Amino acid sequence: MLTSRNIEILKAIVEEFIDTAEPVGSKTLVDKYDLPYSSATIRNDMATLESLGYLEKPHTSAGRVPSNKGYQFYCEYLVDKEEDEEIKYALSNIFAKESMNIEDAIKESCNIISDMTNLTAAVLGPDASEQRLEHIKLFPIDHKTAVGVFITNIGHTENKVFNFKEDVSLEDIQNCTDILNDRLKGTKVSGLKDKLEAIKPILNKTVKRHEMLFNAFYGAFVKFATETIYFRGKSNIMYQPEFSDVEKLKEFMKVIDNSKLFRQLIDPQSDDGNKLALKTKSGSELVWLDDIAVVSSDIKVSENESAKLMVVGPNRMQYDRVLSLLDFISEEIAKIYK
Q: Which of 245, 305, 307, 321 is most exposed by smallest CB count within 10 Å?
């Protein structure tokens, strides 16, 4: 059980380390934070916080730095969300564009957050792989172009523009679409590629330009079954002191370049003994693993689906600012897009 003095000292250490990236000593706390305690008392409390796992002592310094457990406690009980009016103004201008759909608004929000926080931001789209195909509709634009619309059983929609190398007749497009709707309805999105391979002989017999249409739909199904992850500002992590170590930087890039590893990182339930997680009262989720922190917020994009808007960076990030921005975006999108 932490005392009020322990908590006051922990809060000061977390905020000082976030600002400076330098281990914090008792003298700094006395001089800068005007704490009404002696240096000896503060050192004793810092030792207590270290023994309880809230602080760590770097080998090369007499000062202390927050541990992930310390950050977790800070974000749960001590963080004061900072209102960043400059970023909120930029975000408000996005949401004022009536022609922008919700997916584009989320992506543009991701861009602004990354640019103005100098952190990596990401959007993880809905995972459609376990949904089932309900209907395909192909809209011809001209003899070499068509727009395909794929709808799943829960209403998830994907659009795909088909650019054919040769002319394709309306009859071929309609025949192909009819066969696919008849044979693929109810198929899991993750199984569409294999099912399409199985019905290729039927397309061969019925559709003149079967090879061209088959290849077009095969490519669309591969894209449909792949998780949608959008990143902005991957290189921002290079300018953080924690990642001046090339090996640490390589590990970070390996995680965010691999969708499976990244999903495992942000999943609070994944089995990793070093991981800590927290869900705030406003619904944001935080995950800490080694030197990486992820702050995310779920945003509904349809009646049955949500996307995740995330900020990824060192565990020494400005949580007050990041949490405030994610809350603001969630509230604005809910208000505007209902």
A: 245
Q: Determine the Cα–Cα distance for residues 288 and 149; give it in Å rounded to an integer.
A: 39
- Is-contact 151 187, C-beta < 8 A? no
What is the Cβ-side half-sphere exposure of residue 51, based on CA atoms within 13 angstroms? 9
Instruction: Kindly give the interhelix angle for 259-266 and 246-256, rounded to the nearest 10 degrees.
Output: 100
- Over residues 291-296, mean pLDDT: 92
What's the chain's average pLDDT?
85
Q: Which residues contact 247 (CB under 8 A, 6 or more apart)?
A: none
Domain ranges for the chain: 4-78, 85-127+228-337, 133-225
CATH 1.10.10.10 fits 4-78, yes or no: yes
Q: What is the model's pTM? A: 0.75
Amino acid 73: pLDDT: 96
> How far is the C-alpha of 213 from the C-alpha of 162, rounded, in Å?
9
**Residue position matching structure tokens 């800070």:** 74
